[in-house]
Amino acid sequence: MNELIPLMVIVPMMAALLLSAFSKYDKLIRILAFVVAICLPIIPIVSNYGLHFFGGYEPMVDNVTNILYHPAITYSFDFMQQCFIAMIGLLTFLVVFIYLSKYKKVSGPYLFLLFMGTSAATALILTDDIFHMFVFFEILALAQVGIVAASSIEYSYEMALKYMILGAIGSPMMLLGIGFLLAMTGTVNVTDIVAILRGGLLNVTSPVFLLSLGLIFFGWLYASGLPPFHTIKSGIYSKAEPHAAALLQSFTVISMISIVIIMFRIYSSLPIFEVFIVLFSVIAMILGVSMALTQTDFRRMIGFLAVGELGFIGLGIGLGTQFALTAGLFQALNEIVITALLFIGFGAIVHSTNEVDTRKLGGLLAYHPKVGIMLLIGGLAMAGVPPLNGFQSKLMLVQASLSCGYPELSILTIMVSIATFVVFVKTFYSMFLRPKPHDLEVADKEVPKAMVFTMLILLIVIFALGLFPNVVTSGISNYVGGLLL
Amino acid sequence: MAETQLAILFTSIALVVIGLYAAIFVDNIIKKIIGISFIEEGANLFIVGIGYKAGGIVPILMPNMDPAWFASNASYPLPYGLVLTSIVIGASTLAVMLALVMVLYRKYGTLSTSVMLADTSKQEEYNE
Question: Is the separation of the CB atoms in A98 and A344 below 8 Å?
């Protein structure tokens, strides 16, 4: 069944190309997009774990170094990849479902961008090849720019160009870092590079090795939207359609964890690596939540909260123990679901009021109680309120910080969670609980059923992960244990 | 390290530095994009330099060649394959950037980045 592994990338990519090619035939692309979107979460669930060697080129032993080399691009599929790919697949299905039910005439190129982004994110998390990772990182960035530019929101082109310019600086830096690694090791396969490092064939304290870390790290900061790229990242979320923003943030999380896992495997022997990860994560946590507090555009507010949540993920990975890494990856999975719920829920409010400024909203609980309650639960999950999934992962992060001997980090984690709670309650009060402003017009139209259905599905996932975290954490912990061997 | 490789290294460093200067400090968006292309080409040139071998042959194994002789004389082909992909990606990025610039030029009538990409939130408040 290992043949299914490349299909996780090929199926959405082929679908994207076909949707673009047949964009004139509305009915055909609707059916195709829906059928493929249903398949996306199913393929990783039915696929067996294992490796896939492109072209069938199996690894071979080098006679001189006695190291097992991988001549072909390799995809590695384990429980961790299964969780994230299934989650991305589910989210893509829900987003495509919302899009298809929202518009009478759908756009093939827009669906192309959604599926191409999903394909690139899937490839990022599967690949064991650092250059292959770079290629799909670029494809993903292009898809993200396209999704933002395709929205009808004002200044979306400006934001897309800004994001591209920064990306066009960040990506070549990462490519240069990969080039330095290639120059030192002669390979771009991560397993091979790790084997060379463990075999003592490379001096890890050499300036060139450190330079490669710095350059790849810079690219990672851009991909993750960590400081100094946090404002542009929250900006692109606010300039995309809300359902697309839900998918964009999941792409960011996938980029972040896939690149950082590769960096962790190569550079974790350098103490400076973990220090840098923790440092930038802490800055992201503080900046994200403090900037969210000052926002009046609720899309931008969620964008900054999402950046703050990325800091939690980085913190877990930076601490570097098996438990902390598991907590970080579990937090990543939770953030994908929670932030998607918030973006889609607030999208429903935009649909109803055509307003994004929290100062001009109010009294919406009377009009949309279902959406209000589901958003409240989502916000509580993000703030880490029990028994929701955000609580479980943040509790694990607090425990991990304590067990690593950093009680100050655990205090910071709790404080940022409380600040997140304050930001959300403030926004929720402004939009739903306080009296409705006289000049606010709430359209009588119902919130689209597709949006309510999507929120319900995400809410079920939030409760399931909150009540039964072991279903996911034990598998991720085993995967992480393998990484640390 | 061969002299050619050193020359390639210095040229690629020069390209990256010039490109970074243009991308960060120059206001004209087209010049900024040219700077970005310089950075990309600098990175590509550096990777090409990795595969260079003084006096090496093209890494294509012909039927009449001895594999052992080929292995010791051919250039390292992996960087060339990677750069080929990287050039295609760079071209796609460039095309999308220029397309966005065309749209924004029609909207603002200028190529100045400070006008085009002024903080969008400030613009929104100003418009209100």
Answer: yes
